[in-house]
Amino acid sequence: MGFLAGKKLLITGVLSNRSIAYGIAKACHAQGAELAFSYVGERFKDRITEFAADFDSKLIFDCDVGSDEQINQMFTDLSASWPTFDGFVHSIGFAPREAIAGDFLEGLNRESFRIAHDISAYSFPAMAKAALPYLNPKSALLTLTYLGALRVLPNYNTMGLAKASLEASVRYLAESLGNKGTGMRVNGISAGPIKTLAASGIKDFGKMLKATAASPIRRNVTIEDVGNVAAFLLSDLAGGVSAEITYVDGGFSQVVGGITDPAEA
Ligand code: NAD
């Protein structure tokens, strides 16, 4: 029996089998969790049905997190199968292309700023608010963030601002859910770069991958690396961890600018 046996978790953000959320689903399923999935767009329904079947699930919900109505509807619909559940993974990010390319100021405009923050940051606490009536004691919420929230990284630009907001929401949410006294927790994982559909929208993403391949573990992280840490954070094994951003980046964030790859010396 795995350490997530008996837990019911909603996983958002599976778009392909390269998605970070797919790696998280894999690890949670291996540890015995029951899973439900959300996706966005009718055209992906068949694909997500197949992914859900990979994890013995028939529960899939079409939900664009840009709509409060759709977020509320998703949790109402989920409650028909699961009257209560044990948490969710928010693995969702989007910014218009001009906001994640080239010079920060050149790409800046009010509308792309709004969209990046709405979809990539606001949606996490918004989902928590809508899910709250259905969350069991000791529920755990998890989101995915990136080092660009803290440091200036080429091209990440407006998405860095949205991720900074998302990380702050992890802390405020942890307090807000924690003060209900039922042991609910909220965490984020800051993942190193992984080639996914969302990541390929960032200009020169290949350069980011190359730079982090020289991290202390001398390779890029995988969706399995992230999935395993996510499964732990979603489990009662991590009952003492909340309001935290855990780095799954091979140590890159700790040595930025100070690394020498012996192979290149
Ligand atoms: P991905 O493209 O596989 O997943 C992104 C997901 O966001 C997709 O499933 C997409 O459908 C969903 N999404 C976008 N707009 C949405 C909306 N309006 N409503 C609902 N869902 C929406 O890419 P990924 O890299 O697995 O991204 C998952 C998360 O991980 C994102 O928050 C991303 O910023 C974060 N992250 C990725 C990396 C990386 O290098 N890939 C690194 C650190 C953090």
Automatic annotation (TrEMBL):
Keyword annotations of the record: Fatty acid biosynthesis, Fatty acid metabolism, Lipid biosynthesis, Lipid metabolism, NAD, Oxidoreductase
E.C. code: 1.3.1.9
UniProt cross-references to InterPro entries, sorted A to Z: Enoyl-ACP_Rdtase_NADH, NAD(P)-bd_dom_sf, SDR_fam
Pfam families assigned to the protein according to its UniProt record, in alphabetical order: adh_short_C2 (PF13561)
Gene3D superfamilies associated with the record: Enoyl acyl carrier protein reductase, NAD(P)-binding Rossmann-like Domain
Catalysed transformations (reactions): a 2,3-saturated acyl-[ACP] + NAD(+) = a (2E)-enoyl-[ACP] + NADH + H(+)
Entry keyword annotation includes Lipid metabolism: yes
Keyword Lipid metabolism in annotation: yes
Pathway: Lipid metabolism; fatty acid biosynthesis
Family indicated by similarity: Belongs to the short-chain dehydrogenases/reductases (SDR) family. FabI subfamily.
Name this protein carries in UniProt: Enoyl-[acyl-carrier-protein] reductase [NADH]
Species of origin: Polaromonas aquatica
Top-level taxonomy: Bacteria, Pseudomonadati, Pseudomonadota, Betaproteobacteria, Burkholderiales
